[in-house]
Design goal:
The structure holds two protein chains of two kinds. By secondary structure, chain A is mainly alpha-helical. In chain A, 75% of the residues lie in helices and 1% in strands. In chain B, helix 6 links the parallel strand 6 and strand 7. Chain B is α/β, with parallel strands linked by helices. Classes of the chains: A mainly alpha, B alpha/beta.
Chain lengths: 249, 364
């Protein structure tokens, strides 16, 4: 099915390439900014420009995979609220899987290309580092996907699907900066409430400075947010009202 | 009531409620409530309040009702999309919401304007993907798509991107998607909405062919009376969340509407007032045929008389017409089905159980 979704995205190749290119240029502007910034300040609370580049590579790839290759996860809330799960529920497959794989967004595919390219160019890719990069990116992708599913599943209860976009903006903003710049309760919130730390800083630190503690923490994040996403969708499905504006009993 | 029809020959059957043992759908006291608002403003809405009916294998059933009657909620509970608040529902022997995946391998669904096809790709690609989801092997799937293309007269449409198809053409491709896995039972929720006259006609013919040639049970909701007349053998009418009528479509008019219309072609033109005077004061409403105003004082060559059969025997009125008017032509017509259904819809909720009971006792 994924192949079909890709074929759909590629149906208009010019548009696909143009949208991808725009996203790559957008990402390059950020990289240019960080390069200039770190050249002036050297490091920020132990984070160097190399660390930032790896953070950006992981983040771009994870965001690209979730918003590009699993594009519908971003719109799960509106899909639930508008009753668009009906078609998925009429098929003999997991409805969340069907929705997630059904659509590819060309804009975010640019992030995938950018993330891979950035790591290849400035990530000092050795076989070991590349394997680690792939592993932490998969973990970051799982956390981000789980988080979006939790937010989207709120629509089963609230009947409206606006939480996904708010949460997505928040997690991308917070995960774009080193975790060390946040302190106290906010840092805790970035591991628990909005899991930005699992999508940006922690995976990057694991590639740059591998440690069992960090690996365990990341695995815990995957289990917690992946599990929360799975569970919230399953529980929410029981309350699905197929587009009715009321909440189910 | 209904024997399982053979796959090869057209099916002859008398529609009506099926015994539970022979039923592909058995619904008993199905209910669904919704709540709206929060805290003090919380309100409970009973969308479906105790629906009971059965459908036999091979039937073509129309499940109809006005907006908000509970028909869409019901069809969603039957297909496993919604969980009933109470009651028992079995579809092909399965409990729809808890055995949704198993059920989806045996039923086909077509929900109005909701599409399962990828708009930028040829319908054939979408069908191949959906077939793979249903677990069909590749050679078998190719044959099935060809077969459906022929059945739905859509062979040339399958290779065009879905977004370039007209609504009618797209609906045929959507129907092909619903039929890929050879379902025993087909649920259609407002399938002809938005289609033009020809597309509707074609769609209805396909549904009847599917039923007669392949024994597919058809469960249809529609607001279009022609869908009911041309596709369904049996109509279950719901309103206010309950079944208020359940009978063969053919007997709908006979059973429920107590008015007839006598159309008379006059051998000698007369005014409507003269006709009324000739037929007597107790005659029903008399109007000129065609586009003429009700009574403009000009002679007309055709009239229509409304007869309330509870008050007057149709034969007695005909006898009076033949005796007092110079008749060139006469015909007795049932009112349009639309009027019959409209009449049922306007009945208050409290009369519903009585209507159902009277129908179970047989036509009066």
């Amino acid at each position: 099915m994924w192949r079909t979704a890709w074929a759909q995205a590629l149906a208009n190749r010019r548009s696909f390439v143009a949208q991808m290119a725009v996203m790559v240029v957008n990402d390059l502007v950020w990289i240019f900014f960080w390069q200039v910034f770190f050249r002036r300040v050297g490091s920020v609370r132990g984070w160097t420009v190399d660390d930032m580049m790896v953070l950006y590579a992981v983040l771009a790839l994870a965001v690209g995979l979730v918003l590009g290759a699993l594009a519908n996860l971003r719109f799960l809330g509106p899909l639930v609220a508008d009753g668009e799960l009906d078609g998925a529920l009429a098929l003999p497959m997991d409805p969340l899987g069907f929705l997630a794989l059904r659509q590819v967004s060309p804009v975010s595919v640019g992030d995938i290309a950018f993330g891979i390219g950035l790591f290849a160019v400035v990530g000092h890719p050795t076989p070991a580092r590349t394997a680690l990069f792939v592993a932490v990116t998969v973990a970051a992708t799982a956390v981000l996907a789980g988080f979006l599913v939790v937010l989207g599943s709120l629509a089963f209860v609230s009947g409206t699907g606006g939480a996904g976009d708010l949460g997505l903006s928040a997690i991308i903003v917070f995960s774009s900066y080193p975790i060390n710049i946040y302190g106290g309760a906010l840092r805790l919130a970035l591991f628990g409430l909005i899991p930005a730390a699992f999508v940006g800083s922690l995976p990057a630190q694991l590639v740059q400075h591998p440690s069992p503690g960090r690996a365990l923490l990341l695995a815990g994040g995957v289990a917690a947010f992946g599990g929360a996403g799975w569970l919230s969708f399953r529980l929410g499905l029981r309350r699905y009202t197929s587009g009715a504006t009321w909440t189910g009993v | 009531m209904t024997a399982s029809p053979s796959a090869s020959s057209p099916v002859q059957r008398a529609p009506g409620p099926a015994p539970a043992a022979n039923a592909v759908i058995a619904v008993d006291d199905m209910r669904r409530t919704f709540t709206t608002g929060r805290r003090r403003r919380r309100r409970t809405i009973e969308a479906v309040r105790g629906i009971t009916f059965t459908v036999a294998r091979g039937e073509r059933l129309a499940f109809i009702g006005p907006n908000g009657a509970g028909k869409s909620t019901s069809i969603k509970m039957l297909t496993g999309l919604l969980r009933p608040s109470a009651g028992s529902v079995r579809v092909l022997g399965l409990e729809p919401w808890s055995q949704r995946r198993a059920l989806s391998r045996r039923i086909g669904t077509l929900f109005g304007q909701r599409s399962l096809l990828w708009p930028e790709l040829p319908a054939r690609t979408s069908l191949a993907t959906l077939g793979a989801i249903h677990g069909l092997d590749r050679p078998g799937l190719g044959r099935r798509i060809t077969e459906l293309g022929e059945l739905l007269e859509a062979t040339e449409l399958l290779d065009r991107p879905v977004r370039t198809l007209s609504l009618g053409q797209r609906m045929r491709c959507e129907l092909a998607a619903a039929l890929l896995h050879r379902p025993d039972l087909l649920f259609l929720d407002e399938p002809t909405i938005g289609l033009d006259l020809l597309a509707k006609q074609r769609f209805r013919e396909v549904l009847v062919r599917l039923n007669t040639e392949h024994s597919t049970t058809v469960f249809l909701t529609s607001h279009d009376v022609a869908d009911i007349e041309h596709v369904a053998e049996r109509a279950v009418i719901v309103n206010h969340g309950t079944v208020i009528h359940d009978s063969p479509v053919a007997s709908l008019r006979r059973t429920l509407l107590t008015t007839k219309r006598i159309e008379v072609g006059l051998a000698r033109a007369q005014t409507v007032a003269d006709v009324r005077a000739a037929l007597g004061p107790d005659i029903g409403p008399v109007m000129a045929l065609g586009d003429r105003p009700a009574d403009d004082g000009m002679p007309v060559d055709g009239i229509a008389i409304g007869v309330d059969t509870r008050r007057q025997a149709i034969g007695a009125v005909l006898d009076r017409v033949l005796r007092h008017l110079a008749v060139a032509d006469v015909s007795v017509a049932d009112p349009p089905l639309e009027a019959v259904i409209g009449e049922i819809y306007t009945r208050p909720a409290a009369t519903a159980p009585a209507v159902v009971q009277s129908l179970r006792d047989g036509p009066s």
